[in-house]
Amino acid sequence: MATNFWSSSHYKRWIVDRSTLHQARSDDLQYVDNPEYLGFLNIFFANLISKLGKKLQLRQRVIATATVFFRRFYVKNSYCETDPFIVIAACCYVAAKAEESPVHIKNVVSEARMLFGEEYGIKSFPSDNSKLAEMEFYLVDELECDLTIFHPYRTLMTLCGKEGGGAVPEAEAGEADADDVDGLRYWGTGEGKLELQEGALQMAWFIINDTYRSELCLLYPPHLIAIAAIYLTLVFHAQTRTSIQQSASSSHSHSGSSHPSHSGSPTRRSSRSTSHSQKKQHHQQDVIGFMAGLNVSMSLVATIAQEIISLLG
Amino acid sequence: MDNNLLVSDPMRVYRAKRDAARKRVTDKYAILGFISSGTYGRVYKAQSKDVDGRIHAIKKFKPDKEGDVITYTGISQSAIREIALNREITHENIVALKEVILEDKSIYMVFEYAEHDFLQVIHHHSQTLRSQISLAVLKSLTYQLLNGLLYLHDAHIIHRDLKPANILITSSGVVKIGDLGLARLTHQPLQPLFAGDKVVVTIWYRAPELLLGAKHYNKSIDIWAVGCVMAELASLRPIFKGEEAKLDSKKNVPFQKDQLLKIFEVLGTPSEREWPKIKDLPEYQCMRRLDHYSNRLQEWSQSRVRSHEGANLLKELFAYDPDRRLTAGEALQHKWFQEDPLPSRNAFESLSTQQVPPHRRITQDDAPSMMPVAAVGSQVQGQGQVSHMQATGQAHLSQQLSHSHSNHSGKAGSAASFASVSGGGGGPSRKKARLG
């Protein structure tokens, strides 16, 4: 289960289409002048979940799970008929349990009251633990008890993660136990991984964080979101992009032998024929092959990448 | 006024809407009787009011009370686990969750019904038939148990509470692993496993690395428990029936001396040669102060397991070193399962009708909310009935829970014989692994 997305409740019951999302917002739309505002609400609430999660010292994955719970709740409900603040608190509370790192209900109530009251002027948040517990009860019901969530982080680490992965907090990268390796598999062995530069992995991680501000997690399987984030990283991360371009042009200059080197640096680089840089170069050239070898719909990945860009823009 | 209410409880309208839309448990199921209870709550036998009229077991989690008032205090970690895991898995050898109903501050999990369980089969043989479980049945039950466990382990789930009472069998002889309340995912945990639950697995089925205080453990703890269960099916008594040392006032986990001794008496004292990492375990020094035993498992198995290959399988399930213990997949490939009698999909296939264990006993319930109103009667009568029913329920339970003990006192024995090893002394009752 934890290994097979295709047999999970996440895949079977919780990937929805745009018309479902549109339908879900139909009541709310009556109250806004511009439908775009609802998109802003998506961002606002995601930030709020993130803030509360950080106050509760939840890990990124727990915050992501809480956000998915929140989005799922509002596939079936409208903002105007509910109190998103108590829903947010309940999402964090349940997510912490679902991810096996529970926090005490008292803490959730007091941190939520403080955050919402002091920073957002929301005075209605109940001080009574049982109110939050009541919301939890309704939330779990709305979620149809599907509490296991797959996240793009996992695909990212599977495809690009390093041992002890420097850029990303080690524990976030997952402490997969070594004896989990059953049968034939190459993942987790480091073989076939895309080696991202220092900082690039972190950028991909941050792009994934940002996707939770939208409804992407309801629309697309997490592994495609991860691949879109990797793709964007290859383009956005300056050093990575430069080295891809360099290796592309240097391979050009190798094939077209008469071509004089256009700038100093690529030639210098290729002339420094230590085994290390050769290996690195070879690797960089492989990026396109790596992406192609993933055997996923690239047009879908491109669509997701577009949506992420419009979210960031 | 209205406005005030909205401010003080903006979710009122939402809840009213949800409550009105929700089907109640008793709309969907007719409760037939009470099966058992535990720390988590109570289990009922129920019949679906659908046309199929299927029988189910409904597990009702105990609602939390503040004084006499039932109130919301938050869903327990174990309920969240059991629900979350069960929603994701389907396998013939795992009890299937049909649905979960959240109603009136209580959680109801509706499971497929299983007529028997391992403990009941053991009792039926030790009390009624007064004979060993036949090799064909023993092998089929063990095989199916391993098959279900393989599925869980492949899904990165450790069960952490395997024991005869948690392993069910349908009337058509199919094994169903139940009670995932202590189970958890081990894939990329955010916290080490020990951080969540200090004590896992009921003491008699607890692996030696846990008894020696290991902070890191893995699936192989379930394999040890399977060894214990298989041995218990073979001998009709728990093989390592130790006394659990209680937690001290600071909730420190004590050294489980007696349980370790019970294991050593049969398997011998573990050596660094067979288990190199043993010297790194927290309780290793304590263990070294215990008397030294030699391995007598072969002798133990002879009359009980009745098969050379079967005894060999048991030996490999009981490997001290968790890294050398068989995996569920390896165990299923064991030669014992390839020789006659072959394991069968209906574990009871070879049995005559009177050899098949009797149906699960159900009693009337003492929790009126789950029973048809007529069965409860008037207030005063109801009271009497309630206490009576409770008594029946408890009698039933204690019958389930108690093993017959010969009154040998082989306690903490240094030179205990096999009889006292397996017969136990005075006999602690089966303890839940869970802590409050």
Automatic annotation (TrEMBL), chain A:
Residue ranges occupied by any Cyclin-like domain in the UniProt entry: 47-141, 193-310
Any GO MF annotation of the entry: cyclin-dependent protein serine/threonine kinase regulator activity
InterPro entries for the chain: Cyclin-like_dom (IPR013763), Cyclin-like_sf (IPR036915), Cyclin/Ssn8 (IPR043198), Cyclin_N (IPR006671)
Keyword terms of this UniProt record: Activator, Cyclin, Membrane, Nucleus, Repressor, Transcription, Transcription regulation, Transmembrane, Transmembrane helix
SMART domains assigned: CYCLIN
TM ranges: 218-236, 287-309
Location in the cell: Nucleus
One Pfam entry name: Cyclin_N
Gene Ontology annotations of biological process type: regulation of transcription by RNA polymerase II
Region annotation (Disordered) ranges: 245-282
Biased composition annotated in UniProt, kind: Low complexity: 245-276
Superkingdom of this protein's organism: Eukaryota
GO-annotated cellular components: nucleus
UniProt record similarity statement: Belongs to the cyclin family. Cyclin C subfamily.
Protein name: Cyclin-like domain-containing protein
TrEMBL record, chain B:
EC number(s) reported in the record: 2.7.11.22, 2.7.11.23
Region (Disordered): 379-436
Skewed-composition ranges (Low complexity): 396-421
GO MF terms held by the record: ATP binding; cyclin-dependent protein serine/threonine kinase activity; metal ion binding; RNA polymerase II CTD heptapeptide repeat kinase activity
UniProt GO cellular component terms: mediator complex
Pfam families membership: Pkinase
All copies of domain Protein kinase, residue ranges: 29-337
Location within or outside the cell: Nucleus
Organism encoding this protein: Ganoderma sinense ZZ0214-1
Regions crossing the membrane: none
Entry's family note: Belongs to the protein kinase superfamily. CMGC Ser/Thr protein kinase family. CDC2/CDKX subfamily.
InterPro entries in UniProt: CDK, Kinase-like_dom_sf, Prot_kinase_dom, Ser/Thr_kinase_AS
Domain of life where this protein originates: Eukaryota
Reactions mediated catalytically: [DNA-directed RNA polymerase] + ATP = phospho-[DNA-directed RNA polymerase] + ADP + H(+); L-seryl-[protein] + ATP = O-phospho-L-seryl-[protein] + ADP + H(+); L-threonyl-[protein] + ATP = O-phospho-L-threonyl-[protein] + ADP + H(+)
CDD domains in the cross-refs: STKc_CDK8_like
Full protein name: Cyclin-dependent kinase 8
Keyword annotations: Activator, ATP-binding, Kinase, Magnesium, Metal-binding, Nucleotide-binding, Nucleus, Repressor, Serine/threonine-protein kinase, Transcription, Transcription regulation, Transferase
Tagged with keyword Chloroplast: no
Keyword Membrane: no
Enzyme category, top tier: transferase
